[in-house]
Design brief:
Number of helices: 18
Radius of gyration: 22 Å
Order of helices and strands: HEHEHHEHEHHHEHHHEHHHHEHEHH
Strand order of the largest sheet: 2-1-3-4
Helix content: 40-55%
Length: 445
């Protein structure tokens, strides 16, 4: 008699090569500029991908039906959005697949795929295949492959997206004609999408110059505004669905949002492979590959940074190597769960560049981000007393009005400091504390 335990777990439905011709692949939206180009790259390479741009409370409600409310908010939103799309009647479940990313790190995000499959089964869509987009050998699908050529295309889509996001945020808050910045964003997103059908996207020097010239030509006010850095868990930091359109809210309130690029997160993931080898002797082959990728990606990023610097109109983004140096004596690179040391480094880099007002967006219950973000704020403030940092939690029960009230308190303090800066008068201790959203003085809303 065989006493070995029986594995009754069903094998996941695989996305096969035949499905490339018959299936629409639905993917969540995170960064509108970047992901639009990545969507085009996948479609250029024989897939039929569609980004989900839906919004509304029904997405949260659908997520709550299928995901425990203790699970982090990005998982709830992504899964809720996908199940909502399948229930909408717009897509044939027998000809639809879902695409989700897995980083392979210690974050629960690597396990979203299992939650999604469970949600599909209990929602009546057990035959919908789920594709994992990862570079950590977690899962594979015979019908979905990311070729070296596609990796190069994706890299340039990300660096172009970083550039457009960086300069557009320096234009939109100051534009004299409403909507003029968005027109340039749309123009270049469409232009670059077309370039990915050929090798034109590789003409970076020419493209950088034209992009910078077009944004520089937008009529803008010279009135100084409060600059607010946005950091946090990657989905909450970038996704309008996750952070309740935080960038638009800050602009409406008279501030300039400042966000680092997506490439920094990718470089951080590659750097962690080097750190693993250095600290634990883990993965020599992986470390070698990661090192080569890291050097090449940094080279590409530095070309973009030099183009902005040479153009001379816009502030220059920081370099990835500077991020690593900024955390010396504050946090070690061994802290790499979730956004790990990168999140602390981004706050330090913002302060070093003169952006002292920072919003840290985090899903309620995200332990890694509470440690490397909220947990590091006191240490950062001890070193930089004039830093104005607030954490904002996002979860199914959090209302936009409470989040906005907390942001308004931070902006009130920031605008007061800007007034004193204009008058070249140092703020008094009383004025510094007026409306200050210190986490010890103001309850989390």
């Amino acid at each position: 008699m065989n006493n070995c335990p029986v594995n009754n777990e069903e094998k996941p439905i695989e996305f096969t090569p035949q499905m490339r011709k018959t299936h629409t692949i639905l993917a969540p939206m995170m960064l509108p500029i970047h992901f639009t180009m990545l969507e085009q790259i996948l479609n250029c390479n024989g897939y039929h991908v569609e980004l989900l741009r839906t919004t509304g409370r029904q997405i949260v409600d659908e997520g709550l039906k299928n995901v425990h409310n203790d699970t982090c908010y990005p998982a709830l939103l992504v899964i809720g959005q996908m199940i909502d799309a399948l229930k909408s009647g717009k897509y044939d479940p027998d000809k639809t697949a879902l695409l989700i990313t897995q980083t392979g790190g210690g974050c629960r995000a690597s396990n979203y795929i299992y939650l999604l499959r469970k949600a599909l089964k209990q929602s009546g869509f057990p035959n919908v295949p789920v594709i994992s987009l990862n570079f950590a050998s977690l899962e594979s699908a015979s019908g979905f492959t990311f070729t070296p050529a596609m990796i190069i295309q994706a890299l340039y889509a990300i660096i172009y997206g970083d550039l457009i996001m960086w300069v557009s945020n320096q234009c939109k808050p100051y534009e004299l004609v409403a909507g003029s910045t968005q027109k340039v964003i749309d123009k270049w997103t469409e232009e670059l999408c077309q370039q990915f059908h050929s090798s034109k996207f590789l003409h970076i020097r020419k493209n950088y110059q034209k992009i910078l010239d077009d944004f520089a030509a937008i009529p803008r006010s010279s009135e100084p505004k409060v600059r607010v850095g946005i950091v946090g868990e990657i989905y909450m930091k970038y996704a309008p669905l996750g952070n309740n359109n935080l960038e638009d809210f800050l602009i409406k309130e008279g501030a300039e949002p400042v966000l680092s690029g997506l490439l920094d997160f990718i470089l951080y993931c590659l750097k962690n492979s080097e750190v693993d080898y250095k600290l634990y002797g883990k993965g020599k082959k992986t470390k070698t590959i990661a090192h080569l990728g890291l050097r090449y990606f940094i080279h590409v990023q530095n070309k973009m940074i030099k183009a902005v610097e040479k153009h001379g109109v816009f502030r220059v983004p920081g370099k990835f190597d500077d991020l690593g140096r900024s955390i010396e004596g504050v946090i070690g690179m061994g802290a790499k769960m979730g956004e790990g040391w990168l999140l602390t480094a981004e706050m330090m880099e913002l302060i070093h560049s003169g952006v002292k007002n920072i919003v840290c967006t985090q899903p309620f219950g995200c332990l890694p981000n509470h440690i490397v973000a909220k947990g590091m704020m006191r240490k950062i403030k001890d070193r930089y007393p004039d830093a104005n940092i607030i954490p904002v939690d996002y979860d199914p029960s959090a209302t936009a009005i409470n989040q906005e009230n907390r942001l308004k308190m931070m902006l009130s303090n920031a605008k007061l400091a800007l007034q004193f800066e204009k008058q070249d008068v140092p703020p008094t201790p009383a004025s510094q504390n007026a409306g200050a959203p210190d986490e010890q003085a103001v309850p989390q809303l």
